[in-house]
Amino acid sequence: MAGRGQAKGETRRYERRREDVIHAASALINEFGVKGTTFAGLARAVGLNATSITYYFDRKDKLVVAVYEATLDWLEDAARTAAAEADPAARLRAFIAAHVALRKRIRDGEKGLITSLSEIRTLDEEAQAPLLDRYGRIVQTVRGFFGGDGDDGRRTGPQRALDTARAHVLLEAMFWWPVWALSYSVNDFARLEARMFDILSRGLAANAGEWAPRALDRAEWRTQEGDGDTVEAFLRSATVMINQRGYRGASVNRIASALGVTKGSFYHHHEAKDDLVFECFEKSYDRLSAVQIAARDGDASAGGSDGWTRIASALAELIDLQFRDPTPLLRTAALQALPMGERGSVVVRSNRLANRFAGMIADGIADGSVRAVDPMVASQIIMPALNGAYEARAWAARQPDPATAVRLYAWTLCAGLFADPPERG
User: Is the pTM of this model over 0.85?
Assistant: First the structure.
């Protein structure tokens, strides 16, 4: 009996220490990315030596998979708990509350963290397949939030397409929340939770469902036919590959091979891959900024338009760019791969773009075309929706036409997660 009890005690100690390792690895991956997380750094974080870490995980890729599994465990539990609520509004409220409460517990010192899932696709196919399948089930659960009482989440056709867009925008908003939450005290979290629910449930347009974006001149930010400049080609290839495979999966060999050039050609134009990633961010932000300014200022000579029309015009153009342009905007997830010195300037630039959207929202509130929302919170919901639109390319291609795809995706920002477009009612 003593031997059996001792064995159980050893097992419990092993599991506790293994969880400590996973939690510490989660924090390091959030801060430094998978590339920057080492067994030596992890050992220091948990008070072990690097050799001892291999007792729990003999390879780094197994540790990374365990971290992702822990994140998916939490996310699936939060989604299922919210899905058990009686109606769509209660489900949305519960799902937001779970993410806000987790962030508060982390601020209060809880060790367990959720990790950005952005680098799942850098794993070997055998490792990533079950993780992506689990994430797909979570999306299905969240998609079921938007049916009526007792809806089982298996609606079909156009309604299913709209629910998929809703789930995508909601999940992207929650994945971005830990980033911008850093700018606020936990004493503000209850207010932020209420503001997020208000914006996601009711949208931004003062006139419910108003969607009449104007066309913008696309010359500055669209990929031009026959654009064969070598530097531009590297930026385009790297952006697409990083978006698809993550930083680790977008190797110099793969980028060069996609362009039909040698590694030597790559290093002729860039000293290192990190330099290329930084340039991709700069290029993406230049283009996003150009769209914002064109939407905000482009019709001044014609007497201007109201604030919501300017916002809708920027949203329509940027979403369509993410859905169809050969050079999409770089996913923010690549930020983890940048050296800390360069990461700060990228974050500053991202915040400036969010602040510009906040200013446009404030202008719309002033002229009555945008509901009275918190502009800063609204801008931090817009940014991940635009950033994550690239992931919805396959979904967009299945819609009847590009304009319909853009309108369905933008509808959640326009009218909220619960209102159907007139033709979907």
Answer: yes
